[in-house]
Amino acid sequence: MLLEQSTQSLIDYGKYFAYPQISLEPIRRRQDPELAQSIINLAKNKLAKTGTNKVTEPLFFVGSVDFMVRNDDDGKTFYVLESNGGNSRGFSAMPVKHWLQSYDSYAQSLHFAKSENPTVLIGHPNKDLLLYEKIFLAEYLVQKMKKKDPNAEAVHAANITGKRLKQGNLVIIGPYKDILSRLSIYKNNYVYFEGKKLDVLIGDGIARRKPEIVEHLLKNDLESLVVNDVFFLTDDKALTYMAVDEVAHLLANYSVEPIAFKRAQNDRELKKITTDILDEIPEVLIKPHGGSGGSGIDIISKKEQVQKKIESSKEHYEEKFGPTRNPFPYTVCQRVEATPIEWNDALHHYDIRVYVGRSKDRIVPLGALMRVSLEPFSGHFNKKSFVVNLSGYEGVDTDRGFGVNKDSLKLFNLEKSDFAKMFAAACTLSAYMNNNYSKLIKKALVDEKN
To answer: pTM, whole model, 2 decimals?
Structure first.
């Protein structure tokens, strides 16, 4: 209750500082904590028998996996749409208990810090509408640090002093604009903030916006820990699909099927691959590298649309991320034959976002939410009837977000056992990407050279 009250206070006061916030409380109120926990327990029991959620490297701590569902006479089939190993947001849509567990997963990174008095940097987007999630994360980490050092504290990047930087057990938090120009990499392969060695960086946007950090991540020789290192894999949807292919024999136990995909390195490849695939299937999706909120994703059903849709995709991507960020490599993939639900007297597509986090040497499920498309499905696909992101259009549309409860299970025609399968599959996939990061990266680099 205290966390919820504090959240509402930050949201209320944010408007006075020209920093509006959006509450995910409407979704959180639609969560049944006991039902969610019972599903988590079912999934953990499945994973205890296989051990496929065990992690051996400190490359993944918290994230999510998105699924779509197809209903058949002989059961349900689940498809992985994407994995999110980067700057995941939306944990406050879960019951408070599970929201806090996500922070504990972040805190696991402190165990891998090589300094006894670690310094953590938390970055967030400028004008982040869910900034309060990062503020509470900073406070959570500080409370963990205070068990060793009562002087541990969190300081905003704009207010940090040289004297305080010389001390340890510090959490620095700030928007990318206050952080990026003050970062550098020394010969010891650590990232430094104004000369202060950083042990942990939270917010993949920090790394993604610094090419020299990405370069070290690809070589797997960065000493500073990035939460999560695997963001480079999850940014590239084709690499997620590659991982799904490689672990398909395990995911099949949870009724997960891989999807067909190809990877395009440039405009010429993207146009050719998209055009060729339309000879085989009726529709394809194009997805740029490192997009979020559905930016740049589009569906193409006719060859004469290809060039126009590609240009439109790149324009939307640039509108969100600016002209310096590269949308390639693109992923071209099949449209999943998902089964829509009836909502508000019309058919709508939806997905299930499963949140997962690290607990010691295991990836465990944290919870889930369902997201319904903005527009109904009328028999012809368009982006707004297929891409379900709550934040991809105007603000964050919480009316289209549903928690795990008895009514929502009935609405989406899902059983507890269905969720348990997706929870276990999400943990298995995330653990595999953590444990096989170097192998997957090498395959991607070979693909780019060819």
So the answer is: 0.95
